[in-house]
Amino acid sequence: MVTGTWILLTIYVLAVIYLVVKGAGKTKNISDYALGSVLFSPVAVGLSLAASMTSAATFVINPGFIANFGVSGALSYAVFLPLASMISLVVLTKSFRKHGQSVKALTLAQWIGKRYDSKSYAFFMGLLALLLLTFIVLIVVALTKVIAQSLNLNEFNVMLAIVIFVFGYMMYGGANSMVYTNTIQAVVMLIVAIILLTSGYEHFSNGVQGFLDKLAAIDPLLVKPVNPQSPLFRNFYEIIFAQIVVGIAIVVQPHIITKSLLLKKESDVNKFLVTAVIAEVLFFAVVIAGLYARISFPELSLNGSTLSNDNIIPAYVVETFSNGTFAVLVGLFVVLGLIAAGMSTLEGLIQSVSTTITSDLIQPLFGHKIQADISLIRINKVAIVFMALITIYLASDQLINPKLSVGIFAQNGVYAYFSAAFVPVIFGIFFKHVKVSTVFAATITAISVHFLVYYGLPALHQVQTLDLGFFTSFIEGKVRNPAIAASSAIVVSSVVGLMWHFINREKGAKA
Question: Based on the structure, what is the number of domains in the chain?
């Protein structure tokens, strides 16, 4: 397994370098880096979106939550979240694409700034986009777990190698190479999703009820639709409502919603969406493998050592596919798929966040000193180096001191970002004559409510016990659910935005 993984990684690295060189030759300016200059097929872009939207979180981290907490987690992550996100994707993509093309935006922050004619608001949204670094950390940690487990190597050294390699080649490729690599990665992920979903077929020898009986024998709560002992799936508000709200808003992340701008023809949009949705359905279903892992590791331990949430799936893959030549070959392909799941989103995040730093933060501040596109490309490379250093620092801490999982750390940052971006994007697409003060108020509200619910209320609750009804359980305990904070922020900021918009409109009508 170790030898095979080395060979596989070598081939993968060489293939990626070839595709990056191929794409880099066509990247002449920051616009090419952000949106590409190549005419890609809608199927390729759709697969690229599916690969970017589904990350190592879906293939590695989230199945660990399912292994820990059972069917309740599967309902949350495999049913309600994906259902809401895919409907949102279809509805928002077409409208955003039309607006995105008309304002010639390279980033989401730039789109928001041009839509509301406010450079300062674009700059503020660019600053908030730095919260996406938490998601980059999640993916790097997940990749580290998979590769270190497969090669029996030190986690810190593996993490360092991953950051140097991926951030290094993303300094040159951009969108032109990313669509190539994402398409290949998505195809690998599709095959691996099928392998993982069928890896537990023997558990269904007595039907679905027999499978559930095996889980119930380990812990009856594993087969319940809610798990009151979990920090994430305690009731239907948490499992259904919060995940639907988050699923709707999750699409406004820059590496997701801007993907449609890679299409050069309007007629390609439907084919692009159909491809993306079909692939996504399969990808999101992979979390069910966490239930197979729980049956394999009933006590969530291996060789006497307790498995952390983020180590469960890597251990399951190594254990399941290590007996016999054919099984090892399949296992190696699965390892490649898990790596591809991480790399695909990691590339998209590095590309979108670095472009935001360059175009929305550095250029507005020092634009008068930047004379040519070639200078922006160089600045973008420096931004990527900065991101790599921050990632190494944060990932090192998450490898040693995670709160249940690096997934909680990442969700807190990412959910805060798209909570803040939700109202400006939605209002910008569907409403006319919206004042910048309206959406800015909504953004400030979203950020404030998110961190108040996640940090402020729990801290206050420790000092003076708060009685918030059923909501009280969400602010208790060492591990809290970022989806509660995000859904609260999205709902409250939407109400604030609507009220502000209609008040301003009435004032305008009276004037």
Answer: 1
